[in-house]
Amino acid sequence: MNRNHVSRMRLRLRHARLALLLLATCVAGCATRAPAPEVPEIELPTVVIPTVTRGEFTLEADKLDTWNAVGQILVNTPGVEYEGRSQMLDLYTVRYRGEEFLILTKALLLSDTIRKTTTRVTATTQDGKPIDSNAAADLLAQLQQKLPAEIVSVRAKQAAEAKAKRTAAAKAKAKSKGKAKAKKKKR
């Protein structure tokens, strides 16, 4: 046997092995398998992310008056833990029924539908997202009920404080004028 003949036989053997491998792969791909066991379909509860806070409301009142009145109501409402506030951000941080959230007062822009100074009172999560909880809705309902009277009370306190300041300033001015007149008489 010469070399040429041996190398041809090896090549034929390789081709035969390759053809056998290809045939086995094709047959394996055509094989039927036992059906997979059916997995029962489980219905998952739908989680709805709120887009509006349940219980939020608007009030025809100045934002600052509303913010001050909300603060008075919060510190005097049983079960509310007053944790902080920021007048510049129009918010109070509170804990009510074990849940921590923010109470916000935001002025609404005047428009065709809003003709008087109006403030929105709402609650949000610490991240500023709308909240849908019974605790927040209940506290907002209490605020909505108590705010009109508290705003009147806050305005009355502010007017009394302003009047007391004016009276004190007028008395100080009169007293200084009286001293000046007394000095002139002594001369």
Q: Overview of this structure, please?
A:
The chain has helices at residues 3-30, 63-76, 134-186, and strands spanning 57-59, 80-86, 91-96, 99-108, 118-124. With 187 residues, it is an alpha+beta fold. The protein has a five-stranded antiparallel β-sheet with strand order 1-5-4-3-2, with helices on one face. A hairpin with a 2-residue loop joins strand 3 (91-96) and strand 4. Helix 2 (63-76) crosses helix 3. The longest helix is centred in the C-terminal third of the chain and has 53 residues, at 134-186. The radius of gyration is 40 Å and the shape is elongated.
Q: What would the keywords be for this entry?
A:
187 residues, five-stranded antiparallel sheet, 5 strands
Low-confidence spans:
none
The share of residues in extended strands comes to 15-25%
Rg calc: 40 Å
Number of helices: 3
Largest sheet: 5 strands, antiparallel
Oligomeric state of shown chains: single chain
Spatial strand arrangement across the major sheet:
1-5-4-3-2
Secondary-structure element pattern, one letter each: HEHEEEEH
Give the % helix: 40-55%
Number-wise, the strands total: 5
Principal-axes geometry comes out as elongated
Average pLDDT number: 85
Q: Which class best fits the helix and strand makeup?
A: alpha+beta
Gap between N and C termini? 152 Å
Task: List the topology elements.
Elements (H helix, E strand, L loop, with lengths): L2 H28 L26 E3 L3 H14 L3 E7 L4 E6 L2 E10 L9 E7 L9 H53 L1
Antiparallel strand pairs: 1-5, 2-3, 3-4, 4-5
Helix pairs in contact: 2-3
Task: Summarize the entry for a quick read.
The chain has helices at residues 3-30, 63-76, 134-186, and strands at residues 57-59, 80-86, 91-96, 99-108, 118-124. By secondary structure, it is α+β, with helices and mostly antiparallel strands.
